[in-house]
Amino acid sequence: MADVVVETRSLTKVYRDFWGRKKKTALNALDLKIYRGEIFGLLGPNGSGKTTTIKLLLGLLFPTSGDAFVFGEPAAKVEKNERIGYLPEESYLYRFLNAEETLDFYGRLFHLDPEVRRKRAAELIEIVGLSADKKRILKEYSKGMRQRIGLAQALINDPELIILDEPTSGLDPIGTRWMKDLILDLKKKGKTVLMCSHRLDDVQDVCDRIAILYNGDLQEVGEVSRLLADAARLEVRARNVKETPQLKADLEEVFRKHGGTLESVGHPTTTLEDLFLRIVEESKARPGRRYLPPVENGTSGNGSGN
Predict the structure, then answer these.
(1) What are the residue ranges of helices labelled H in the chain?
(2) Torsion over CA of 183, 187, 193 and 195, rounded to 10 degrees?
(3) Fewest beta carbons less than 10 Å away: which of 34, 135, 193, 200?
């Protein structure tokens, strides 16, 4: 359990109107575990419950029922946020501060010593590629530049858990590749990353596991490689050999006969985009569909729901 950084147990959030009548179930009995050192992707169309989940984990909202834990502590305990870095989809930064002043301000919020603040700010400005623009006020920044300084403020406290909401929003292809490399580097440093994104190729490139939400219900969860595997087909890859009828008849014998080397045998994968769209369409066709978690004997849930 020490390796579980985030856990939700039947986490539910229902929004009600002025008279207390149920208006919308934003999140319905969510059960999730996110482990230390992994990159976890939270996917879903608009209104699926992603932002609600993040706000519940940060203690910005209180659940209607169920529980959420971060670092083994209730999510409502705000002290745990000192170990979290958060990049919202729209960064709420002071437009008339420059990059150095912005990071110094957030460093003060975490009660960092002045020398530590200056050192961390200089390092992060270099990391996010804003050294040449560190004296410019944020009002003059492009959206991509604001996204970079927003990430720097999320890392100013050297957090153990980093929550990123649409981290590649506003970035060009080069900036997107930079952001994905940085996320992977955070994992190498032992950080845990929870990211939400509409760009499915980004999630596929960096995430270890994903969860797909639709209308507040958890529809699927698991390793990206497993979810994208096409178990109905088999793929064989070889090098230094051409395809012949004899090759098809007896792969291993033909590989040796033609001087080739068998590289891999496994199931080809679909794309995360195809998986995502298929699950959403299935969810629309079957409103009661829910992900079935693994049972105690270790077998996997089939995700077919009720």
Answers:
(1) 50-58, 99-109, 114-127, 143-154, 173-188, 200-206, 224-227, 245-249, 251-257, 272-285
(2) 40
(3) 135
Q: How far is CA 187 from the centre of its chain?
A: 12
Q: Render pLDDT for 55-86 as a digit per residue (tens, 0 to 9).
A: 999 999 999 999 999 999 999 998 999 999 99
Say if residues 122 and 104 touch (Cβ distance below 8 Å). no
A 10 A CB-CB count for 98 gives 21
Backbone angles phi and psi of 9, in degrees to 5: -130, 110
In angstroms, the CA 157 to CA 102 distance is 13
Distance CA 14, CA 25 (A): 4
Scan for tokens 């400005």, then name that residue: 125
Ordered by where they begin, the domains of the chain are 4-94+158-229+270-285 (3.40.50.300), 235-265 (no CATH)
* pLDDT tens track for 9-24: 999 999 988 888 888 8
Position 166, amino acid: E
Distance of alpha carbon 176 from alpha carbon 183, whole angstroms: 11
CB 39, CB 164: distance < 8 Å = no
Q: Model-level pTM?
A: 0.81
CB-CB contact of 72 with 218 (8 Å) = no
